[in-house]
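User: Some background: our group keeps a shared notebook of sequences we're curious about, and every so often someone picks one and asks for a predicted structure to add to the entry. Today it's my turn. The entry only has the sequence so far, pasted here. Could you supply the structure so I can complete it?
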Amino acid sequence: MTREEVWEAVADTLRPAFGRLLDVRDVKRVRRVAGDAWIVTVVLAAQSGDLHVADLTVDDTGAISPRISAEHVIEAVKRADRTSRAPAAMPDELADFGGGLDDADQGDDGLELFSEMEEEPVDKRVAAALARGDDASLDQARQLLPRLLADHDRRGSTLLTMAAVEMKLGEPKLAREYVEASAREFADRFDLDSLEKAAVLALQLIGRDAFAGSVVHALLEQSRTRLKPFFSIFDTRSFAELPEDLRESLSPAIHLRTLTPGETLVTEGDASRNVFVVKSGLVGVYLEKPEGGQWLVRCCFPGWLLGEGSVLGGDSPRCTASLRAERVSEVWTVDAKSVRAIMEQDLAFGQRIAETKQIHRIDSFFSMHETMGQLDVQVRDEMLSCIQRLETFEDQTLLLPANEIPSVACLVARGSIALVQAGSETPVGVIEADSFYGVRDTIHRVAPSVAAIARPGTTVAFFEGTRLQKLCERSPEHVVAVLERLG
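Assistant: Of course. Here's the predicted structure to add to the notebook entry:
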């Protein structure tokens, strides 16, 4: 569904019961494990201003929850009434708030604030300090540079500059940490030119002998390997096992398209009509942010299959992300109708396409997740590789017994998991959709005192415990800390 379709669908459900009393004010896309959804803000349009009534969820099938009732409206009015009757600060209390400053002092503060507003942008101040190059200027750059880390697109280059500054100031340990962090950022984007610059700085820091076993060297070699082009689409994972007769019938539908850097292949929300496989180069996956704008969540290297929603997305599938070439790239394009015909003849091929779609859904969820989104793409890929299976339970099913070390961790895609004490039937907690359970227990081999029970209709992604433990053993401390917080 498009944003406009969601807006209209919610408005149509409100109109019969509430007329013009309620209105839709905002529609934002959110990423869910089971697929895309929309959060719709509904307000009561009053003369004094909009009163927030509820935030509704519209899933990828068009189902709306919760259903707004008169109780929602009454509660919105009560909240507004409580707010309007809240005691306001007395004028003399506000006068004391300034700490007794006289008018002259307040005037000086105002001028000082205005002066700060007129300062040069941080990036220009950093550049000037680096150009001077003396220790005092480098220390000034050290203080300013962290402010630039908020710019997602420039984070890698900022970290590399921070590494160079620390090296000049005689802090090699800190410089190495920054250069490794910058290399991870560059590897996420497969920015080989910048990754090689990070490698040059790492060589200067740790020497040639230690460089071969370093994080930066591993990231550089991995990126170079992954960028190796494919000769044929039938060499890629999804198409490699197709028998010869199906390859021959599919070949006329395969077309090779060359993209220039920055050229858009598809735009999020457009009709999805083709399956794409990257032959060479890099294709960026961009997701819309809830607050507006786009976010580069990963770069897809040769062999990646994209656009699988065109053959698995129902009658009118839509693109769930924008795809854009990051460099000169070649992409095989296959129309959805031809792919579906092959899927009907080869069930294993259809299964591989379905698995790809589910992995991409979870990957999108990870990229926008408050906690998982802090991890770089390499770690998220390893987390995805820990997925053991995705299973739906039609009946109430015991997943993890109480007082036993769990062998798997869970991510709820649909439905919910009840947590129940041994010998009791009353849940002490509920794990809702898009939430993790058991990650910390699995990593640290802790036996929880509650049993995890899937409710009817629940779908769960299971992560293999042993692989999660090994991921933590070879990961930096901040990665382990992020995984421990899941759930």
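Suggested note for the entry: Confidence is low (pLDDT under 50) at residues 93-118. Residues 375 and 479 are 7 Å apart (CA to CA).
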